[in-house]
Amino acid sequence: MQKRNRLEAMLRKITDEQFSAVWKETYGYIPEGERADLARDFVAEQYDGELDGDIERVKSLLKPVSKLKVKNRSLASR
pTM of the full predicted structure? Predict the structure, then answer.
């Protein structure tokens, strides 16, 4: 139950677009309905062996994207 609770909490933290992408990747369509209900349904449908992979996938969505520093080569050559 602990993994299911963790996954459900993580699903509530990602954006609607990210949630739709996770759902679509898993089920092949974009869901309709209340987000809280959909998160609960998503978690309930996963097999125990799938939970770790789902947690890692959602965790990667929660990590902030590091900003790449762009070097302006024309300024550096002056």
Answer: 0.75
Half-sphere exposure of residue 39, counting CA atoms within 13 Å on the CB side? 20
Tell which residue, 10, 13, 43, has the closest CA to residue 26. 43
Is residue 69 over pLDDT 90?
Answer: no
Q: Give residue 47's identity as a one-letter amino acid code.
A: Y
Taking residue 26's Cβ as centre, other Cβ atoms within 10 Å add up to 14
3-state SS class at 76: helix
Q: Break the chain down into helix, strand, coil percent, rounded to 5.
A: 70, 0, 30
